Task: structure prediction
Amino acid sequence: MERMGEDGEDKLIAVARHIARTLGRTDTMADDILHIFSTFDGRFSREKLSDDLPAMSSLERRLREHVSSDRPIWSDSAAASAFLSALDDLIASGDLHPRADDLLQQCMLRLEDEFRALMDRPAGTIDSGDEEDDSDGEDRIPVAHPVPDYDIIIDAIPPGTVADLHSIATRMVSAGFAKECAHVYALSRRDFLDESVSRLGIRARTAEELQATPWEDLADEIARWVRAMNVAVRILFPSERRLCDKVFAGLSQAADLAFAEACRGTAIQLLAFADAIAVGSRAPERLFKVLDMYEAVRDLVPEIESLFSDQYSSFLRSEAVAIWKGLGGAIRGIFMEFENLIRRDPAKAAVPGGGLHPMTRYVMNHLRAACGSRHTLEQVMDDDGGGGVATVDHDRPSSSLAVQIAWIMEVLQANLEAKSKVYKDPSLGFVFLMNNGRYISQKARDGELGALLGEEWTRREDARVRRWMTDYQRGAWGKVVAVLRTDGGGGAGASVKALRERLRMFNAYLEDVWREQRGWVVTDERLREELREAVSGMVVPAYRGFLGRLRAAEGGRGVEKQLMMFSVEDVEARIGELFEGNARRS
Amino acid sequence: MPATDFQGSSSPFASIGRSILSLRRDQVHSMDGHHEPGSSQEQELEGFQRHVADLFQDLVGGEELLSLRWVRKLLNAFLICQEEFRVIFFNNRAVVARAPLDRLIAEFFERSVKALDVCNAIRDGIEQVRQWHKHLEIVTLALDPGLKTIGEGQLRRAKKALVDLAIGMLDEKDSGSVLAHRNRSFGRNHGPTKDHHRAGGHFRSLSWSVSRSWSAARQLQAIGNNLSAPRGHELMQTNGLAVPVFTMNLVLLFVMWALVAAIPCQDRGLQMHFSIPRNFPWAAPILSLHERILEESKKRDRRNSNGLLKEIHQMEKYIRQLSELTETIQFPLAEDKEADIRNAVQELSQVRESMKEELDLLELEVREMFHRIVRSRTEGLDCLSHHPE
Result:
């Protein structure tokens, strides 16, 4: 209709054709109408009206028959191939006439419906062609079931159907209907993926909901998520990719588009869960589950990057990496919170008998367990975006994790020292510190935790325990031993009376200390022995010497029985009964 | 404890961008970070107020209200406010842990978490618009302005895409019934409209990140709950720091509200009252924007819209136009009809072009906003928890 000159006639003829086509339900009818026109006016000669019609008509008749069929064409493979070959003839004719083009478009719309029906056909009813099956096909979307082994591929659509789909896709893409085809494909696959992921126990949750979920439930959800994530990335998405590559074989752009559209929602939903967990509470008990998530994402990132390497999915690649980093941040946050909890643990409640504090036990065991994931944690700590912890002290282990752990140990020790001040008797405070210090250094001696803290650290910790031991001895026994010390040199020995008085005092002190410290606790057997030996080593020789001096002062006569309540052996025995805790006596 | 072992070398002020993990050593040990209530802090606070006002004033004037570009500019304004707030917060970290500021800040972080869900819902909404965009591409592909003639075939294809698009754009509450009437009839003789089952937007996509029962309107209400300007004693007790906290709360609320207004998302609702005392310099621009957006939502042709985004409006307009034109079409095409169609397609092509890149950018920026909110909250919580009570 470019030029007006011929336009009038062109249009007239076009109208006539249009009328014939609209009114003529069949080709014969159309033909009849055209015949009537041609007899009506010279301008409507049969030649003009049907310049290209004769060649079309048989092809057109065949195609129109298919297009208007109420039954799915692909329910009958012979019909399907007849349709396709007619369609190919139409495409091959290169006919650009509007009427041929319209027919082509109608065929395409029909192909789209056929494609959708094939996509949604339940796997079990490959050749049934029963329309009733199709009407509720959606309820029977085949889904993936949880599997133990990730090294499998799902064939959600039987090979025969895949071949049919491919034959349709090829025609649609070549006729410029790639977008429609990819879209229909993606919608159907999205249903499959949605359903599969929800069968794996994953549903859309907001960050707020997750914050309100009790931890035990959340821990279960995380375990499910880790599994679902693996199933999705190792099985579902690769299977989708493979299916897509088959259906759209040789049509890589359409394949990429279809694949990206199909997987995007599911992938985002899965990643959003990790996002929500990463911003959630930072209670220490979460560490291990969040580590699981971190490791899962970290291990899957290479696969995600290769799966979603097409132009349409770059968003998912960067999302996955961002979430991986986000989980790392959450882990660092949990460590920080852990440290805060230790620092803020109140010093009010003293452990009876100066024994091991539950916090010490918790912290050390938590750290030991955490160090089971040492490699991952080192990665996480080194990835601390700021790169702030740069100062390396030669006495200290230098990895970020080591620094972090050493720091937590310092916070722990500072808190324990504050707690030791709660004891009214400073000596008991030292026993408390020794108990906890020894526990710490034992827990830190071996394993990954020991390796991280290093020998130097353990040596220093041991030295601290020894110092407390000395402090204890001085505090608890200094007075006792001082009584036995007769002022050397001075007068030729103190008077007998004075010595006797000292013995009485010693007896009272020893009795007191024994009564008191019998109830104190030293949990570690070796420490208990060491402590007793140290006390014996301090007291017994002094006592023996004192007795010698007393006997000498008494002029060889024995010391009075009432006065000498304890033999040297008795003193040793009493010392040997210290630190057993009350439990043993009851 | 040898705190110096762990300290970074740079000064705390230069290290705003550094992770808090490396900074906290200073915080724990330097309790002397107390600011003299002198000029520098006052200047900082006043500067923040003015800057927020400028940013929002810019949004009143500059880009066309509610266009994709405008929305992106809004996000950018938010990010700038957030960053400056972070700096103020950090510079005053010695006092943020004291009552009542600690409570005010904790509440702000609570609101931030709620905003994260809005971000996710908006991301899904953008995806929704992208789905429409795909149909739009088909329409403009079928009726390519470069075509010499518009044939019946092309028109049929375009009409189908238009129907898909129209269904996709129906509000969720209406779409259910359409989907319930899926008709898988194979014959073309029932007319094209019967074949649009599952056409258009895939409605489930709206709940990738939020559950079915989630409501944007309720979420906004929750963010706005108990939000009121600081009272005199609060100002005194907080050294004036209650003001930036309130400011940031309001900025957060307004930005989330505007996003929900512009972008499709689950259960939108714009009934929200912003009570801001006029003496805040940013009150005027924000209230003016609020009013104008509300006005827009009340316009007759926008009332049932699922997003006030200008581009959505244009899409709706030209789609309606094109649908009406194609509905009554007779072949051969009358010249004026054809010109009208070509005109509408031309307009749609322009909308399509302008949306494509902007949508991608907006999506990235919404994600950026998400991450920045998370980061700021995390660092803030660290700051709070590192000050022994």
